[in-house]
Amino acid sequence: MNAHTHSGHVLALCGGIGGAKLVLGLYRMLDPQQLTVVVNTGDDFEHLGLKISPDLDTVLYTLGGVADPERGWGRAQETWESMAALRQLGSEAWFQLGDRDLAMHVMRTEWLRAGKSLTEFAAHAGGRLRISAQILPMTDAGVRTIIETAEGDLPFQHYFVRRRCEPAVTAIRFDGAKEAQPAPGVTELIGSQNLRAIVICPSNPYLSVDPILAVPGIRQALATSTAPVVAVSPIIGGQAVKGPTVKIMAELGIAATTQTIAAHYRGLIDGLVIDESDANDRAQIDVPVLATRTMMKDIADRERLARDVAAFADTLTRPPEAERARGGHR
């Protein structure tokens, strides 16, 4: 069902590459002005004096049509002369910043130093990339995902990029979350009566979605929203499509199953979208389930999954909050 048959705004919660694929599908299948994307900023950090927002940039580049289709992050037709020159000067070069990509970080740093907010910068960059959807960071405050490992605490990018997810994870925390506030407009939109659906993208629940839910007010707004909330499982047949999801789940003693994802979002979601290969899990999940093809290899897959998710959301009704907290969808 597209925007012509169903009006109302869709709100997506998203991390980086995996989530951005579904967001692009939604952007192409809906009226783009009826889409808002709230993006994880727990991965944000400062590097070489620049303010870097990896997930936000992935969503901006993806919807702006300038993302690298092979890597899934960074800009297309990228060159790396600056990194080569930095290495020559003996600088840290473990985090790759492409020459075109540098423009985003330089300008964001300039804006934030001048006292403007990350929300304002995201709106500006989205406008310059001719994106019709609204892209919001989860917060304008500094929330930092810290990976507690057997070797000590590591900021997310040091764990993910520098150490390539090698250290065993013992816990994950979000420094600064308790003091943070949602970015302007986030909780108001979640509470809006004109909301058709809220979609939790197939991003890593522990690294990409939990930081968003850790910002005070967002989880509560989702729990009390009148719009149906649908999550798309990032697990396909016991494996994650990309990234360290399954490794981290194993180290934290969590089974890599669709049931685990359903339990993780219990009390928040009204439906779960799982891959058709996991269709037999349906009986063990206490919310309505749509089993479809969730692997997104090309643009047609992204559009098809977006259509399926939106149509599925349209079939769901929200039970009262207390009933939902008990898993009362049956």
Global geometry? globular
Number of strands: 14
Relative strand content: 15-25%
End-to-end Cα distance, whole Å, is 25 Å
- Order of helices and strands, N to C? EHEEEHHHHEEEHEHEHHEEEHHEEHH
Provide the low-confidence segments as ranges: 1-5
* Helix-residue proportion: 25-40%
Instruction: Please outline the major beta sheet.
Output: 7 strands, parallel
Number of helices: 13
Q: Measured on Cα atoms, how large is the radius of gyration?
A: 19 Å
Explain the overall architecture.
Helix 1 links the parallel strand 1 (9-14) and strand 2. The relative contact order is 0.15. Mean pLDDT is 92; it is low at 1-5. Strands 5-2-1-9-10-13-14 form a seven-stranded parallel sheet, sandwiched between helices. By secondary structure, the chain is α/β, with parallel strands linked by helices. The chain is built from 13 helices and 14 strands. 37% of the residues lie in helices and 18% in strands.
Chart the SSEs and their pairings:
Blueprint: E1 9-14, H1 17-29, E2 35-39, E3 45-47, E4 50-52, H2 54-63, H3 81-88, H4 99-113, H5 118-128, E5 134-137, E6 144-149, E7 152-155, H6 156-162, E8 169-175, H7 186-190, E9 195-200, H8 205-214, H9 218-224, E10 229-232, E11 235-236, E12 239-240, H10 245-251, H11 258-264, E13 271-275, E14 289-292, H12 299-314, H13 321-325
Parallel strand pairs: 1-2, 1-9, 2-5, 9-10, 10-13, 13-14
Antiparallel strand pairs: 3-4, 6-7, 6-8, 11-12
Helix pairs in contact: 1-2, 1-12
